[in-house]
Amino acid sequence: MVEQQLNEIIQKMTLNEKIGQLIQLATPFFKGASDKGEITGPMTGMGITDEISQNCGSVLGASGAREVMNIQKAHLEKNRFGIPLLMMADIVHGFKTIFPVPLAMGCSWDLDLAEKSAEIAAKEAAVSGVHVTFAPMVDIVRDPRWGRVMESTGEDPYLNSLFARAFVRGFQGTNLTDDQNRVAACVKHFAAYGAPEGGREYNTVNMSERQLRESYLPPYKAALDEGCEMVMTAFNTVDGIPATGNKKLMRDLLRDEWGFDGVMISDWGAVKELIPHGIAEDSSEAAVKALQAGVDIEMMTTCYVDNLKQLVENGTIEETLIDEAVLRILKLKQKLGLFENPYRGADEKREQEYILSEEHRKAAREAAAKSCVLLKNQSVLPLNRHQKIALIGPFAQNGDILGPWSWQGSYEEAVKMDEGIKMKIDPALLTVAKGCDIETGTENEMNMAINAASEADVIILALGESSAMSGEGGSRANICLPDIQLQLIAEVKKLKKPMAAVLFNGRPLDLHGVIDQADAVLEAWYPGTEGGAAIADLLFGDANPSGRLSMTFPYSVGQVPIYYNHFNTGRPKTSEEYVRYVTHYLDIPNEPLLPFGFGLSYTTFSYTDAMLSADTMNSEQPITLSVSITNTGNVAGEEVVQLYIRDVAGEIVRPVKELKAFKKIMLQPNETKEASFTITEEQLRYHHENLQFTSDAGTFIAFVGRNSQDVSALTFKLVN
Ligand code: GLC
């Protein structure tokens, strides 16, 4: 059906029918829905009539081939023009086969892996009747107090942009109309939701347009450049105006400057929230501001259906604004082939074949192993298989390892830590005692764990945050492990036995009491359905850790927001000696506990012969940086060679370093490989005072190494 035909339908639709296309409701409002729909926000009395439901354009949180087909069938029987519903849901890091949370995937620095995970998620979701996923979430995150840092791939604009593209490629493929194993992607949350003051959920975001464009917008743009079909608005203000009613951000920048003509959906209730934000006195004014900002679909509030008809009739808004929104929505339905086949890829038989298949589980296991980060290892890991092991801690036998956005994922289907270890050793060698729950415990439980540990040769501590302590609404002011778990570590430590901690958490933690006590620490994040199996692969050396932190671990919460690509200030702290009048704290260091890009391996790597092909470059003549990396250990391992660049003096203050490229290379023992990077003038551009995105001639420093701190520096000039 071509655009003209869609317009012809629109012209025949009543105003109410057009407005109905602009609302999205959760499954409870639809005939044919079961009760397992996804409710991810407040649901107050909404006054949804049958007429509204019958005119509705899209459904939130429906899944399961049978349920979706029932809802769609019942809807089409009532909809005058047979306009099919769009089925949208949060498939963020897996549908039934749950992959590591995005922050973990970001630590893999493996874009093919990320694309594969999204492709599998799309395949399982599409066969279950989902058409659109509310992913990727690409918000830049610098404050681990915020619960949703787990949903982002991290703090770096370049790395997040690459992952945004990879996820969109995986979800959408290259032909959404014909490839019914794919779903449309919806990049979120536009914009800068990851920068709430105090790390407090839904709090104010305050930043200059320059910082927004320089650091926060690139990943959204990358997703759209990769063809992402939809954009979801953020709950927060951007420069004093809530994103959902922000014409400058949405119409002027997103639609006019970037040329995005796809569907824009509000986040849950964000249209009506313009009232408490204070830019709308009532739902009518909220509807005007959101529609004028270009929001096509209002999710789960009724400002549009309650007010737009009257607003058109009294001349407050042009009906053409509604028509253009409806056209964008119908074009997406057309692109997904829904007019030809409203049931698209939904298929109960194939659903059983695809969901949680061995192939998918294998991919999830590989992804989990590559997303874990080895933070410390003093000769404890990998474990040998003939020693007595005590597995202690609240995550020893806990299925809550899927993360807060695992919706259709099931704890029962997850491979737990004890199950993973039993795949590797004689179960008679393993003793399990949780010692405490995640935030509470009893003396008896603690004593049982100490007794179990006292009998073992080596102790594995399985510790962390419940998924409820993370994710949306999961901000924490204290980012340490719960006290009871720190007490458990201290008690087990008294036994003076080798002790390795495995962490299940959704944010960088303040690891005092953990990393100074344990002999080894493996950061597993929320590793997903195959978590226990992947961790066992790593603990016993069947896989070698290769993850590198995509988000800084602070020394303490007092440092946040903390990130590697910071400004130098006018009084940088340049030595360890005490100097009062430089940028510092009296009571903690400036440096983080663990820097961006950090991660250990079971082998070691040396960097030699770092050099530049020339010491000057221009826009026509790039230069090349090359460096040799040798595996100096006795097992094969992957190294992530990282290239950062600093612009020593710009028109605007420039970060002390910015990630510009990386290469993940596999090296056999004693093998040496050369990594080379081409440095181009485009990579040196930034937003100037007038917001023009250009470069300046002058001095630059290239840094190459194993993380954002451990690097070699090479100076070069850009000349005109
Ligand atoms: C939630 C989240 C958003 C999600 C939406 C639908 O409030 O902010 O990320 O996609 O509602 O579930």
Automatic annotation (TrEMBL):
Example GO biological process: glucan catabolic process
Q: What class of enzyme is it?
A: hydrolase
Reactions the enzyme catalyzes: Hydrolysis of terminal, non-reducing beta-D-glucosyl residues with release of beta-D-glucose
- Answer whether the UniProt record assigns the keyword Hydrolase to this protein: yes
**MF annotations from Gene Ontology:** beta-glucosidase activity
Query: Which Pfam families has this protein been placed in?
Result: Fn3-like, Glyco_hydro_3, Glyco_hydro_3_C
Q: Which UniProt keywords apply?
A: Glycosidase, Hydrolase, Signal
Keyword Kinase part of the UniProt annotation: no
Fibronectin type III-like domain sequence ranges: 639-708
Give the E.C. number(s).
Answer: 3.2.1.21
Q: Which NCBIfam families match?
A: PRK15098.1
* Similarity comment text for this entry: Belongs to the glycosyl hydrolase 3 family.
* Designated name of the protein: beta-glucosidase
Protein species of origin = Neobacillus niacini
Q: What is the lineage of its organism?
A: Bacteria, Bacillati, Bacillota, Bacilli, Bacillales
